[in-house]
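Running this now, will post back.
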Amino acid sequence: MSIRFGIIGCQHAHIAAFIQEMIALGHTCAGLYEAEDPKMARGIAEKFGIPLADSMEPFLDESVTVIGSAAVNDAKIDVIEWCESHGKHIMVDKPAVTNREQLKRLEAVIRRGRIQVGMMLTERFRPAVHTLKRILDAGELGRIVSLMTRKPHRLNPSSRGAWHFSKSRNGGIVIDLLVHDFDLIRWLTRQEVASVKTVVAKNDLPEYPEFRDAVSAQVVMSGGTIAMLYADWHTPDQSWTWGDCRLFVNGTAGFAELRLCGDPSVPEKGELFLRVTDSEPLTRVDLTPPPASLTADFLARIEGKPCILTHDDLLAASALTIEADERAEVLGGV
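Update: finished.
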């Protein structure tokens, strides 16, 4: 059955992936509404041939059953509650919430159970990460000793809205970037987080005193696995990619490295998965695509079918990032 969906809030280009996946699945976009800076909204609307709306009123039509949102981070909870009040399921770009008060509001929406809420935790749906999950579940690396994520990002400050540099509006580097990684370590290890020690640092942009540009979190999982999470906003302007993101897993029987943005030193483009074990030399692992896209998985949840990403996962990732942010040690200034 074809779905009509709308977009409320277009402040990050991530929402284009949701629109593209919905259209690829045969669904129709009823329009895009952006209340603040319309520049990105105009570009995305033109790219996909969808109309720009002057308000949220067109989405009140009962034929529109799903909403996507990449509103400013601190405004997404308002859109979620609006969707609940009008019976619309919603997919938001990450993060869904930026502080503990908003987390309580999100928990209340989910607890009432009137709508399904999705968040664009896209890492689970990468072929390399999906393949890693299959290998770990099969025990091919033995017991997981440690897991490390490295997620540098290119900032391009001149192209970002002022809200991005505001702690209250953006949420900050822990909440904005590590939400992916807190979700991954729970999913990959099948363990819960037992303790976290977080450090954030400021090395640049004195004109934005609230903006922190690097974060490191040391995590101990309930089963004894150690996780080390790192992210920053320091990918050089001349880098071959927006961020040379990598994921490393050490097990008692083997080691894996995922080069999530590929590697410029090899002719093949795309994600790379390298593995060495006690019984096999270093090899490149063939990737297995996930059974569904993030959007298809969300629509399956709406229909009450089995899914990869649940409400519990969304809440856990959000709660862990907020707790890590609240307890973070702050280093220096410029």
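The mean pLDDT is 96. More later if anyone needs it.
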